[in-house]
């Protein structure tokens, strides 16, 4: 997509002969591990933030509940686009991902035993702090 091109690594699609043979069809794999944070989640995160900015709606900040890849992608692209990011991560989130989110400048809140509890807390912050929630899987710009 043209609008996110400047902040995303263009990754190749490589045919997998092994999977193609098993499936009886040409199977191609997208090498999204080459993105800065190592995940395809960057595409949706950048697009969602840019959509908010295009709507002339400089958000107070964005927020998400995530245990990892979506949090990293929002933190990284929020930093690149000068949009404050808060991520609510459950206690089971990998410390390496928590630390990277902090290094990218996100406000990291550890809350909840699982992602469901983290999301409930994040939604409370949407109401109290005026943040915009970006869902990692159920959000049209994602």
Topology:
Elements: E1 13-15, H1 17-23, E2 28-30, H2 41-54, E3 62-65, H3 69-80, E4 85-89, H4 95-103, E5 107-110, H5 115-129, E6 132-133
Parallel strand pairs: 3-4, 3-6, 4-5
Antiparallel strand pairs: 1-2
Helix pairs in contact: 2-3, 3-4
If you had to describe this structure to a student in words, what would you say it looks like?
The model has no long low-confidence stretch (mean pLDDT 92). The chain is globular, with a radius of gyration of 16 Å. The chain is α/β, with parallel strands linked by helices. The protein has helices spanning 17-23, 41-54, 69-80, 95-103, 115-129, and strands at 13-15, 28-30, 62-65, 85-89, 107-110, 132-133. Helix content is 40%, strand content 15%. A four-stranded parallel beta sheet has the order 5-4-3-6, sandwiched between helices. Strands 1-2 form a two-stranded antiparallel sheet.
Query: Percent of residues in beta strands?
Result: 5-15%
Number of strands: 6
Approximate helicity band: 40-55%
Compressed to H and E, one letter per element, the order equals EHEHEHEHEHE
Dominant shape: globular
Radius of gyration: 16 Å
Supply the helix-strand structural class: alpha/beta
